[in-house]
Specification:
The chain has about 550 residues and is an alpha+beta fold. It is about 35% helix and about 15% strand. The chain has 9 helices and 17 strands. The strands form 4 sheets. Strands 5-6-7-4-3-17-16 form a 7-stranded mixed sheet, with no helix packed on it. The protein has a 6-stranded mixed sheet with strand order 8-9-10-11-15-12, with no helix packed on it. Helix 8 packs antiparallel against helix 9. It is elongated, with a radius of gyration of 41 Å.
Length: about 550
């Protein structure tokens, strides 16, 4: 019986083991099938992503090849200039000698590399981490050919000893006396006080210079205008921020911002104001944070006109800065007339203030054509367009001086717009004002690292207002006229002014006629008679 029970138990164990194997096998097969199904989807997605990445890499390589086709590789050039701008000018001169026209805006970047073999370039790459470690330690380190050179920093505080030349005994005795004299002077000067500086001029020992020499510096405020072409994205705005770090500016008026809506944004370094109604246009201002307290108001009239009322230190009146963007010459006459009508309204509204009108006028003013154009300076250049005639009449109407023509500049540094093909260059951005005495300079910034085909125009305002000259009338030069002559002058002037008001002519013609009338009026001058008084002194007879 015992043997039979043992056999039964063995058979039951075998059956159980077989059943367990079958169950595990079936479970494994089911699990593997499920995993295979899931892995298939993952592998398929992975293959799709790999194909996309390979396509993108291929496209990037093709784009890189296309870009490299536009590159010019020049070997064996000597670096004559220290800055990148000087290097660009040097390369432009070399290329222009070959007969090829090239402008600085067509040069995106310059990479200067030395000519080494592949083995030396690999060694230099391996030495780069060691170079950075040595610089972090404070040592002077640089790579020369294929070796790392490390130098300890010199102690600048260490005094350099000078070797004294050997002279005769008499000269050495004289030296001793001069040394003694200098020591006594230092001792007498020390009694004045350590906080006081050494006098700039020669004064007696122990005394103070009561009238020290002071260098007077004129503080100026930089106001500029720029057509940015677009500031729609944050990337373009960040690019403008980086470009502005290299120049002096305080207030910047912008045309073609292409940012919709009216908004004031306060950022870390500046305040941004924008006004845009139609996509593709828009004007605004960028003002430094240091002038935040001086801002009176910011107004956006339209996507072509924006106003900034600001208090400039040293001036009693407010300054009204108007940034505008005029219609192009391809626009209709009605559009340009509406623009100038709205602009004249704003100027008459703020006529009591000091006005600055600036922006992109899309007009070529050119040189001064006659004396009547007193709002233009003597340094204008070029021809005048139809829009330029309209602008000159507008400036004469509102007594606004064109600051671009008031200062003598090189012809290369006058144009503010260049065509996409680089064939034409025109001056279409201007800064005008009704108070030109406050300005010290107006110039075009040629080197401005920003992606636009326009140049920035910048004017400098003297913070200290100009002194008013006192008029002096000498009593001997005063001319006396009779009542009859004064009546005749009044009658002739009244008749001439009535004729001018009734005639429909331009302001330039009216001004010329009035000047001729005043010069042709003949007045009989009656000179004041001089009375001579002779004093006769007789001797006293006792």
């Amino acid at each position: 019986m015992d043997k039979n029970m043992e056999l039964l138990l063995l058979k039951i164990d075998e059956k159980l083991e077989k059943q367990a194997e079958k169950i595990t096998h079936s479970v494994n097969i089911n699990v593997m099938e499920i995993l295979d199904e899931k892995l298939k989807t993952i592998t398929e997605e992975n293959n799709i992503l790999k194909n996309k990445v390979s396509e993108l890499e291929r496209k990037l390589k093709s784009v890189d090849r296309e870009k490299r086709k536009n590159n010019l590789v020049l070997f064996g050039l000597e670096e004559t200039g220290k800055s990148e701008g000087e290097l660009i000018d040097y390369i432009k001169e070399l290329i222009s000698d070959t007969g090829v026209c090239l402008d600085s805006h067509e040069i995106n970047s310059i990479n200067v590399k030395e000519d080494y073999s592949k083995e030396i370039l690999e060694k230099r790459k391996q030495l780069q981490p060691q170079l950075e470690e040595e610089k972090k330690k404070g040592n002077i380190a640089y790579i020369k050919y294929d070796k790392l050179i490390v130098l300890n920093p010199k102690n600048n505080n260490r005094e350099k000893r000078k070797r004294e030349t050997s002279d005769s005994p008499k000269s050495s005795a004289l030296k001793k006396t001069t040394k003694h004299q200098t020591v006594t002077f230092q001792k007498t000067y020390d009694c004045i006080g350590k906080s006081e500086k050494f006098p700039q001029r020669l004064v007696p020992a122990g005394s103070i210079d009561h009238y020290p020499l002071t260098a007077r510096r004129h503080k100026t405020l930089n106001i500029a205008t720029l057509n940015s072409r677009t500031l729609r994205t944050e990337e373009s705005l960040h690019e403008l921020e980086k470009a502005l770090e290299d120049i002096n500016w305080d207030i910047l008026g912008i045309s073609e911002m292409r940012r919709l809506g009216e908004k004031i944004e306060e950022r870390t370094d500046y305040i941004l104001f924008q006004k845009g109604e139609v996509p593709g246009q828009g004007v605004g201002f960028i003002i430094k944070q240091s002038l935040k307290q001086q801002i009176h108001e910011l107004i956006g009239l339209s996507d072509r006109i924006a106003i900034l009322n600001i208090v400039i230190p040293g001036y009693k009146k407010l300054w009204t800065i108007i940034q505008c963007y005029s219609p192009t010459e391809q626009a209709s006459k009605i559009e340009s007339q509406l623009f100038y009508h709205e602009l004249s309204k704003t100027i008459t509204r703020y006529s009591n203030n000091h006005i600055i009108l600036m922006g992109d006028f899309n007009a070529q003013v050119g040189a001064k054509q006659c004396k009547e154009e007193y709002v233009l300076g003597n340094y204008g250049q070029g021809k005048r367009s139809a829009h330029g005639e309209v602008l000159v009449e507008f400036l004469l109407q509102h007594n606004l001086t064109l600051l671009n023509s008031m200062y003598k500049k090189n012809q290369k540094n006058r144009w503010t717009w260049i065509s996409p093909d680089g064939s034409t260059k025109n001056e279409i951005e201007y800064i005008t004002t009704n108070y030109p005495k406050a300005f010290t300079d107006t110039s075009v910034i040629a080197k401005f690292n920003f992606n636009t085909n326009h140049r920035m125009v910048r004017s400098k305002i003297n913070i200290e207002p100009p002194k008013k000259s006192r008029k002096y009338f000498s009593p001997c030069n005063i001319k006396h006229h009779s009542k009859e002559t004064i009546k005749k002058i009044k009658q002739s002037l009244i008749q001439s002014t009535e004729e001018l008001t009734t005639s429909n002519t331009d302001t330039n013609v009216k001004y010329g006629k009035l000047e001729n009338i005043l010069t042709n009026v003949k007045v009989k001058q009656i000179r004041a008679k001089k009375v001579n008084i002779n004093l006769v002194i007789q001797p006293y007879n006792s």
